[in-house]
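Fold sample X.
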Amino acid sequence: MDTSVPVQPARWSGGARARRLAGSPALRLAGRRLLAAIPVLWGVTLLAFLTLNALPGDAASALLGINATPAELKAFRIKLHLNEPLWVRYGHWLGGVLHGDLGTSLASPQSVASIIRQGLPVTLELVIYALIITLVVSVPLAVLCARRPRGIIDRLSMVLSMAGISIAPFVLGLLLLFVFADDLPVFPAIYSAPSSIVSNLYQFTLPSIVLALPLIGFYTRFLRADLLEQMQSEDYVVTARAKGVSEWRILTRHALRNSFIGLLTIIGLNLATLIGATVIIEQIFSMPGIGHELLQSISNRNVTVVEGIVLVFGIAVVLANLLTDLLYGALDPRIRHGRSRS
C-alpha cells in the first residue's frame, strides 16, 4: 500500500505568499501614500510653473540679454514655444512627464534628465552626510542633557542650540567659510572634483556641518524634552526602577527607543527644509548639485529644468515620509498600519 502523502505543487505556496504580501498592512499603506502623492506632486509642479511664469521677463530675455533686438527676442520665443499660451506649455510638459520625458533645457540642447543625473548625487550626498552628522551629535548630547537636566552640559547645549537655530543658513555658511577656509584653511573654500573617497568626504564636511548645525540644536532640545517626559511619567520607567534597573540603562535601552518615534517624525517633516537649504549651501560652496542648478535655472527662467528639479524634490520628500511611516512599525511593534481603529 502506498502511504506517501502527495506533495502540493509549489505554485500554491507561491500564490499564498503573494496573497499575504498583497494583503500586508505596509504594502497597503505604501499604496495609499503613493496614490495620495499624485495630486500633491501635480499641485507642486503647477504652482512652480505659474510662479515662475509670473516673474518679470522670460527665458528669451534672460538668455539673450539686454542687447537683444525685438526681432531676435520674437524669433527666440517662437523657437522655445514661449509664444504659446500658458496652459498649452504646461500641458506639453505634463504630457512628456507622463511618458517619462522631462523635456530639454531652454538654455542648451541638454536634456533635463541628464542635468538631474549629474547633480543629484552631489545633493544626495550632502543631505545624507548632514543627517549623519546631526544624529551622531544630537542623540548622545540629548541623552547627556536628559541624564543631568539643568547641569552644565544641558545649559551649554541650550545656549549653542538656540544660537544654531537662530542663525540663518546663508549667514552661518559664510561665517564658517570665512573662518575655516580663509583664516584657518582647514577645509577647501570651493568644491572641486574629488580624486578619492577621503577627498570627497573632506570637501563635503564643511557644507554638511553648515546644514547640520541648526538641526543639531533643534533635534537635541526636542529629544531631550521627550526623554525627560518619558523618564518622569511613563509606567514602564517606574516598573524598571522597582526592579532595580539603573537609570542609564532605563534611559538608553527603553526611553531612548520610545523617543526615537517622535524624532523620526521630526526628521521626516524637516526633510523638505533640509533639501531647500541645499540650494543656498551649494551656491555658497560652488557645489554642482541640483540645488545650484535650480537657482541658476530660476535666474534664467529655464522653466523645464526648474519643473524637473521641483518634481524630483517633491518625489524625494514623498518617499522620505513614506519611509518614516514604515519605520514606525519597526520601532514600535504595537503599531500596525491598516488596522481598523478602535
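Fold sample Y, listed below.
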Amino acid sequence: MKAFVAIGCQASSLTRLADCQPARSAKLADIQSYSARQRFVFNVATRCLCYLIAIWRAFAVAFFSLIALAHNAITIPLVRRARRVHARAAWLHAWCRFACRVLGIRVTTHGSMPSSGLLVCNHLSYLDIVVLSSIQPCVFVAKRDVATWPLFGWLAHAAGTIFIDRERRFSSVKAVEVVQDAIAGGPVVVLFPEGTSSDGSTVLPFKSALLESAVQLRCPVAAASIEYDLDDGSVADEVCYWRNMTLVPHLLNLFFKREIRANYSFSPAEICAGNRKQVARELRDEIVSMRS
C-alpha cells in the first residue's frame, strides 16, 4: 500500500511539474522580450544623444568661429604692428582651447612645448593645428591649399599663418625669409616638414628647405611627436586627414566621436648645427624615436 501511495505522489508531482513548464517558458519569453525592448530603447536613446551632440558641436564650431573672426577683424587693426603676430597667435590660442572642449579632444603632453624658436612635428590631421595652438600660442607654416578650405582657411588667414607654394622654388626661398622674420619676432613657429599628412603608421621623409631659416638664425629647434587614440573607430580613417579625403564629411564624422585623445610629446629645444638636410634627418629620427 505504501508503495502505491509513493508512486501516486511521484506521478502527481510529475504532473504538476509538466503543468508548470508552459508557464515558465511563457515567463522566460516575456523576460527576454522585455530585455530586447530595453536594449532597443537604449540603442535608440544613445543614437539620438549622439546626433544631438553632433548637431550642437557643428553649431558651436560654426557660430563661434564666425564670432571669433568678427572679433579678430575688429581688434587686430587696433594692435601695434609689431605686436600683431603675438595678438593673432593669442587669438587662435583662445579659439583652439574652445574648439578642443567642444570637440571632446583630451590633450596629454609629455615634455614642454617651447615658447619661441622653431617646432618641427609629424603631420596627421588638421586637428594637429587645433591641439598645438590650444597648448600655447604659435604661428603655423602651411601649404597654400589650406587657404582655400572653408572655415579653416578663414581661421588660418586670421591667425597669420604663413602660406607656401611647395611647387614653386621661388616661393620657398621667399618663405624662408618670412619664417625667419616670424621666428625672430614672434611666438614659436610650427613647421610640418613632411609636406603632407599621413595615416600615422610612419613618419614620412622630411623636406629640408624651410629648415634653412633655423640653420641661418641658429635658433632653438624642438621636435614634437603627434599621436591620436579613439575608443570607437579607426584613427587612420577617421582622425587622420590624408589621401583624397574630403574636409566637410571628415569633420562631420568627427562630431560624432565621444572623445578623441591627443598625445603630444616634445623634445628639449636645441640649436642645430650642420646643413639643413642633416638637421632634417636628425629631427625626423628624433620624432621616430619618441613614437616607438
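Sample Y note: Confidence is low (pLDDT under 50) at residues 1-11.
Also: The first strand starts at residue 105 and ends at 110.
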